[in-house]
Automatic annotation (TrEMBL):
Cofactor binding note of this UniProt entry: Binds 1 zinc ion per subunit.
Protein's recorded name: Adenine deaminase
One Pfam family recorded for the sequence: A_deaminase
Entry function: Catalyzes the hydrolytic deamination of adenine to hypoxanthine. Plays an important role in the purine salvage pathway and in nitrogen catabolism.
Residues given in the record as Zn(2+) binding sites: 14, 16, 194, 275
CDD domains the record matches: ADA
């Protein structure tokens, strides 16, 4: 199983680039930018990575993001993640970034974009990793702030592939951003939203009906609503599930309690993702491994999850057929029958 997971070409669809900021890089960037940190050492920072819920994580995540100041910082951060993709055979990645976290501190929007785009181009050149870039609005901030961010993003729309919604979910329902998302769709860009991570299944319905999302990020609370499960199975609207994130943020008690297997067997287009791998104890391969161990998934189910990733991605149809064939080939070599 270990070699099957390693050899399968994998796709990642739920990855916050700021969530790949490893403690070592926090220290290196703080030094470079003359920022004083409240932790005495890398180990002290790493030992603070014990979370009780989403907000306890977000507090540290936004605090650490303050070391990201220049295009070069965003380049280094993103290239380090892409190198990891190369090592783990992640062939395509769709990356979230949170510009408001940076522009609120006075970092120009263009610094963020230039660093990210240069690294994505370099990842394509060096390792043939294809990518998409998704701008996330912070839902704990106002609609007005989201409008302002959309205005800043307009000169860059040809390099952005979609818009998303993240940050603290409780009390910030998708409908708070219905008008901004309608404008994004008018501009011709697809939208996604975090929903049903800590928030209720009703927020998943809202994301579908009010925001007209192309995917739901997380969405695990769909298990509370049989009607929603049926709708998701019928439409195959994808869920980008993040198992280690759910464990570390106490969305599930243990990996054996994770609903992934139930969702998969119910016919939903569920995909495996790492969310904020520097904080949650592992990158994409570790998430596959944790699921297999916790839920006793079969090799066939692992292959199905990889295929779902391709189906749920925004790659071209040609690229999708190519990677499906590659996955089927690896599956056959491991004795996994027709899927
Ligand atoms: N949920 C909401 N916002 C986030 C997350 C998450 O898992 N990770 C980074 N921002
Ligand atoms: Zn997320």
């Amino acid at each position: 199983m270990e070699t099957l997971i390693a050899e399968l070409p994998k796709v990642e669809l739920h990855l916050h680039i700021e969530g790949t900021l490893e403690p070592e890089l926090v220290f290196a960037l703080a030094r470079r930018n003359h920022i004083e940190l409240p932790w005495g050492s890398v180990e002290a920072l790493r030992s603070a990575y014990r979370f009780t819920d989403l907000q306890s994580f977000l507090d540290l995540y936004y605090q650490n993001a303050a070391v990201l100041c220049t295009a070069r910082d965003f380049f280094d951060l993103t290239l380090a993640y892409l190198e990891r993709c190369h090592q783990e055979k992640i062939v395509h990645t769709e990356i979230f970034f949170d510009p408001q976290t940076h522009t609120e501190r006075g970092v120009p929007f263009s610094e963020v974009m230039e660093g990210l785009l240069e690294a994505l181009d370099e990842g394509q050149r060096r390792w043939q990793i294809s990518s998409r870039l998704i701008l996330c609005f912070l839902r704990h901030l106002s609609e007005e702030s989201a409008w302002q961010t959309l205005t800043e993003a307009e000169p860059w729309l040809d390099r952005l592939h979609g818009f998303g919604l993240d940050s603290g979910e409780r009390g910030n329902p998708p409908e708070k951003f219905a008008r901004v998302f309608a404008r994004v769709r008018e501009l011709g860009l697809p939208v996604v939203a975090h929903a049903g991570e800590e928030g209720p299944a009703g927020y998943i319905w809202q994301a579908m009906e009010r925001l007209q999302v192309r995917r739901i990020d997380h969405g695990v609370r769909a298990i509370d609503d049989p009607e929603l499960l049926e709708a998701l199975a019928r439409s195959r609207l994808p869920l980008t599930v993040c198992p280690l994130s759910n464990l570390r943020l106490q969305v599930v008690k243990t990996m054996s309690d994770h609903p992934m297997r139930h969702l998969l067997e119910h016919g939903l287009c569920v995909t495996v993702n790492s969310d904020d791998p520097a904080y949650f104890g592992g990158y994409l391969t570790a998430n596959y491994r944790a699921l297999v161990e916790g839920l006793s998934l079969s090799a066939g189910q692992v292959v199905q999850l990889a295929l779902n990733g391709v189906e749920a991605s925004w790659m071209s149809d040609g690229q999708k057929s190519h990677w499906c064939e590659q996955i089927q080939g690896i599956a056959r070599a491991h004795g996994v029958g027709n899927l």
